[in-house]
Amino acid sequence: MMHGKLQNNKVLKRLFFKLLPVQIVLFGMGSINSIIDGTIAGHYIDERTVGAIGLFYAVITIIGAISSIILSGGSVISGNHIGCGDIQKAGGIFSLCIVLSLMLGVITTLICVCFPGPIATFCGADDSLKESVAQYARGYCLGFIPMFLSEQLSYFLQVENQSRRSYVSVVVTIFCNIALNLFFVKVLDLGIIGLAYATSACNWIFFLILVSYYFSDKAQLKFSLGSIPWEKTIDLIKIGSPSALEQLYLAVNSLTMNRIILKYGGAQALSARASLEMLGGFFIAAQVGCGAVVKTLSSVYIGEEDRDSIKYLMKLVLTKIMALTFAIMILMMLFSQTMALIFFPDKTSDAYVLTRQLYVIYALALPLILVIQIQSNYLQATQNNIAAHVSSVVDGYFATIIPAVVLAPVIGILGVWWADPIGGVITALVYPIYAIIYWKRIPRNTDEWLLLRDDFGVKEDDRLCIDITGMEDVIGSSSRIQSFVEERGYSHRTAFFSALALEEMAGNIVSYGFGADRKKHDMDVRVVSTKNGVLLRIKDDCRAFNPVEMNQIFNPDDPSKNIGIRMISKIADEFSYQNTFGLNVLTIVIK
């Protein structure tokens, strides 16, 4: 139990490491499928096919950019609603995201079906690769609609605490991709379009597994055209546009970089770069996943105006995840030879040598990628949109293109390879420079570095944070809460009822929730002195249990049932519950 300094929030920590693997797996799935495509292309078709697939990544990046507008904007707005305890408004944002994704999926599919040749030219394909890229585009675009929809469903399924469904869908999709790729390429001999057909089919399989949950009665978020807040579309675009623009900048970056690579390294260097785009996602999955979780949880805590949790979240990612990132960096360097052999089995080929060099140099950029992901996602969550846009354009284009243009004429293709770590340093400086501009001076403390103004949330003296791990903490916390409330000028009656509410509800959670399974559980209690009274917010990661609903269905013929819940509902002026991200969140207000 702590008051006056940063709390070791065990509930937040456990939630973070619950959400992070899902994000890593979802992002890593794309990389794993790309590795499968590249491996089969390199072994059963030819090395040039790997380069052709790499050229089409510019289009995939643009598609991802369009989708990220909806995903980023929707996650921030729905997160704010969840933080405020309004699950119905979050459901409206869910419906909005689904409709917008469907519309964009249809439009982009039609464009690729009708104009595959111009798209291949746009990607930078020469005459020898143009037909291959066009074929890949025709087959790949058939999976755009489920790809758009699945990105939205993956996020909202985490809100519903359905991470296991995401894991199952990823595993099934990967095995299907291997089987379908071999069938279309080796058995039917369809070549590069067979690779695209396999990917599209897997996108549909992935989507169908995810969407099946929303046809059940368990879903909290219900799709409803009538609940869609269409007026939020502009806000959604404003918030999500930095992510989208960064993806678009990356697409333009890819187009520009491909030309630089072809000029200074030729087709072999282009294939090396394409292999990194396929495999590199596997190594940055933890960093990108961490950024997504930072955005999600920061949005919720901003809705709650909970500066303590925001600070603890940042401490967590800059220590635990940074240590993990350095370990991944070392592994990428040590296994660079093995990874190069995945795509290019001939150790004497230029493609193999260039690929191994690229992997070792790129590994140095991984810690910087983590810093950039944290910064850019946090800027979006706090809706510092100008800074988010600047970070996007620097990270997406200029930070790597400028070093490549300067160094390539001097040291050849190695100058292009070194552009990634150099660009990481440049982009990582955007946030601290913005913080200095924001405050018009160097920030003085952690709150200021996090861009948190004095009027955000409540003052430190007006909040009490308690971490409960067992019944002894419940008993000890009761007297602390009563003293805390009385010291803020409330009546003895209000202080007594506040302590009673905590002791009764927290006691029930420890007695019936902590021992309901074999898992380790904790409880985060926050007592806040507000203008409208004393607010108690109790969070736990036990099985879902809604005391508000239990009170409503109380049978008056059996007055012995739920005595504690009925007592608290009578003394509380507000009594509400929600379950999001697998957490029970109970809010009690006593005026």
Outline of the structure:
This protein is an alpha+beta fold. Helix content is 73%, strand content 6%.
Description:
α11 runs parallel beside α15. The protein is elongated, with a radius of gyration of 26 Å. It has 24 helices and five strands. The chain starts with 9 loop residues before the first helix and ends with a strand. The chain has a five-stranded antiparallel sheet with strand order 1-2-3-5-4, sandwiched between helices. It has two domains: 439 residues, no CATH class; 131 residues, Heat Shock Protein 90. The chain is an alpha+beta fold and 591 residues long.
Fill in the keyword field for this structure.
591 residues, Heat Shock Protein 90, 5 strands, 5-stranded antiparallel beta sheet, alpha+beta
Question: How are the SSEs ordered, and which strands pair?
Answer:
Elements: H1 10-45, H2 47-83, H3 87-114, H4 116-122, H5 127-140, H6 144-159, H7 163-187, H8 192-211, H9 233-264, H10 266-283, H11 285-304, H12 307-334, H13 336-343, H14 350-363, H15 366-381, H16 385-411, H17 413-417, H18 419-428, H19 430-439, H20 446-449, E1 463-468, H21 471-487, H22 492-513, E2 523-530, E3 533-540, H23 547-552, H24 563-571, E4 574-580, E5 583-590
Antiparallel strand pairs: 1-2, 2-3, 3-5, 4-5
Low-confidence stretches: 1-6
Number of strands: 5
Question: Helical content, roughly?
Answer: over 70%
Provide the number of structural domains. 2
